[in-house]
Amino acid sequence: MITYNQETQIFKLDTKTTSYVMGIADGKYLGHAYYGKKLDSTDLFYLLRTEEHPFVPSRLEREKLSFLDSFPMEYPFGGTGDFRESCIEIRNMQGQHGLELVYAGHRIYEGKGKLEGLPATWGDHCETLEITLEDACAGIRAVLSYSVFADCDALMRSVKIENTGSEPVYLERVLSACLEMDQEPFEILSLPGSWARERQIHRQPLVTGSFVTESVRGESSHQDHPFLAVLSEDCTQTRGEVYAMHFVYSGNFLAKAQCTQYGTLRMVLGIHPDRFCWKLDAGGSFQAPEAVLVYSDEGLGKMSRTFHDLYRSHLIRGSYKDKERPVLINNWEATYFDFNTDKLIAIAREAAKLGIEMLVMDDGWFGCRENDDSSLGDWTVNEQKLPGGLKVLADEVNRLGMKFGIWLEPEMISPDSRLYQEHPDWALQFQGRAPSLARQQLVLDLSRPEVADAIYDSISRVLQSAHIEYVKWDMNRALADIGSMAFPPDRQGELTHRYMLAVYRMQERLITDFPDLLLENCSSGGGRFDPGMLYYSPQIWCSDDTDAIERLQIQEGTQLLYPLSAIGAHVSDCPNHIVGRVTPFQTRGITALAGTFGYELDITKISEEERKMVPGQIAAYKKYAPLIREGDYYRIASYRENHLYDCYEIVSKDKRQAAVFFVQVLYEPGRRSRNIRLQGLDEQMFYEVDGRRYTGGTLMHAGLLRNRLRGDFQAEVIDIQAVF
Ligand code: DGJ
Asked: 264 CA distance to ligand 1 centroid (A)?
């Protein structure tokens, strides 16, 4: 619910358990008063501290600069006195910076508008508050939007900047969200990583100075994640406070927490200002992406469940949103580039016998691609590998009772390709300098509509040429040499954002033109696993590291924010291709259950014993898929923290069913059993576990004793059913 109290000039947005409060000080400045546990009162103006030094400028005891540098500004602007991190920076035609945005009006309405060209949360039972701030002198208007869904505890923010003046201006910085609070002994939680080691949970104290997490790679990246949270020091999975921000965007981002001289903390999140400069013509506007804010007073667990619920109900779209995903087998780790129709059919034939439902043909089926040196951009089938083309292969796979899917990398171009020979200027590059290669490929200048359209048309032709029901959309390098051969000099700073808009536009076209297609995003593993991509594809490949033990930490970091149904997870071969570790087939299966279950190996070559386990693994996936897709996630123990074992639990919304996923990484001699304290059950309800009855209260407070599994890398799923 959203209210405005005219008398106190206080805006209050309530979700199920939180309140977000802003006020207008001095009739001008929009300040942030409070974000936290739900409050009854609206008499909250005192929180803006305008009765304390430095007083608001109209009272003249102190000057404007002192006021601006300490006031908890809701959407901070720099250049006129606030020296802290600002959200907006404009350069006018005289080359000057500096803004003073003041309150100009607001409106509250039912529903939520679309963000033009951008991914964003959507859905019914939603209210939106739009507050307009204006700088008449600069001719700039900022329209701040805040939305709350009745069924969710999150708050969505975005901002649109309008040029109301008579000349163009350059928008050099436009962040989407800011949060001010008193500094306490906080910790910072972020998700740094690397290729094959994405989204590692990292906590560190924030004592003084600033903490920054960012990407300037043109993608949300393996190295950092567009997320930042501030936690109370005592924060665990079940208690303590969390203030979290997550960005619904897939390109460059900046997230920063800044301690100030007055003992306050300012958190900001938005498009990275580095290499960003948007020319805003007179009368033009710029829509910044959406940021999601979540507050939890019950630790990280509640934060995770809030994000999961929001993304499942109000971000993911399409025909697979609430549907079981087919169990797939992908040939990448099975064959790499060395495959042909016969090999694929042999894999499909064996897979079909075991109950696998879809064959995905990965990289290497097009142009003359025999390795990663060539052919990106030439989206025509390699008939030497696949005689008769995709149709012959897809039909044969369908005849085996399986669906068929393919890999694409539409954003890239190989210098060794027909496309590059015809259009060398279509690659991002600086005039006169050979662009940097990565994986022997260059990035297409998708900001040029003719380039994006030509690529879209060629992949659309491929998808029409056969019965293709799944696409893995890959993106295997970061953006560098960000120069366009088609754009004027004063618009080159728009390229990285225009690139992202073009990718979004292409994916929107794809899922509109092929509404039954299951799209899975990927970026050298999980380099673009973010809420932006989730708006287009209900699942994203989590990491190229498919080792069951490495995956525990990668998946834990991913589960912190994303519903398990979005996390691409496969059983792969051993020794694992990345880390060389050998783990039991059963453990690999249980680890892959934490996501969209599938296989990534040559099923014709694994041992008979392993092959026999496949139908049982698929049955487990089918049994738990609805629970995993719709249930509540509880993290019970983390291998990352204890270095011994990993454990999480999913509980159905009606609390009648639960499953515990347990992996014993290392066997400890001398310990006979382990006590697992469950979470999220109904205290009074009776549950059966392995033929024995317990109340929910007993399982949660006294715990469940499990006998020690024998050996390292062992795993089990513990089934918990309510009994009446
Ligand atoms: C990177 C992906 O993460 C892999 O799964 C695979 O599709 C390769 N690209 C293919 O080039």
From this structure: 44
Preceding amide of 54 cis, omega within 30? yes
Cα–chain center distance at 459: 25
**Torsion sign (Cα): 73, 75, 79, 80:** negative
| Three-class DSSP category at 165 | coil
Supply the pLDDT for residue 594: 87
Closest atom of ligand 1 relative to the 407 alpha carbon: 7
Ligand 1 center–CA 474 separation, angstroms: 7
For residue 428, give both structure tokens.
């991002």
pTM over 0.85: yes
Given a cut of 80, is residue 154 above it in pLDDT? Answer: yes
> Hey, which residues does 245 pair with through a beta bridge?
228, 293
Structure-token pair, residue 552? 């525990």
- Mean pLDDT of all residues in 118-124: 97
CA of 175 to the centre of ligand 1 (A): 32
Number of helical H runs and strand E runs in the chain: 14, 38
Read off the pLDDT of each residue in 176-191 and give the average, rounded to a whole number. Answer: 96
* Ligand 1 atom at shortest distance from the alpha carbon of 362: 7
Structure tokens at 367: 């142009």
Instruction: Using the Cα atoms of residue 549, residue 555, residue 560 and residue 564 in order, give the sign of their dihedral.
Output: negative
| Residue whose tokens read 């995903």 | 325
In 3-state terms, what secondary structure has residue 592?
A: helix
- Which of 408, 472, 522 to mutate for ligand 1's pocket (most ligand atoms within 8 Å of CB)? 522
- CA-based nearest residue to 504, from 487, 519, 526: 519
Residue 63: its pLDDT value, please? Answer: 86
CA of 108: how far to CAs of 11, 13, 128, 129, 148, in Å? 10, 11, 6, 4, 11
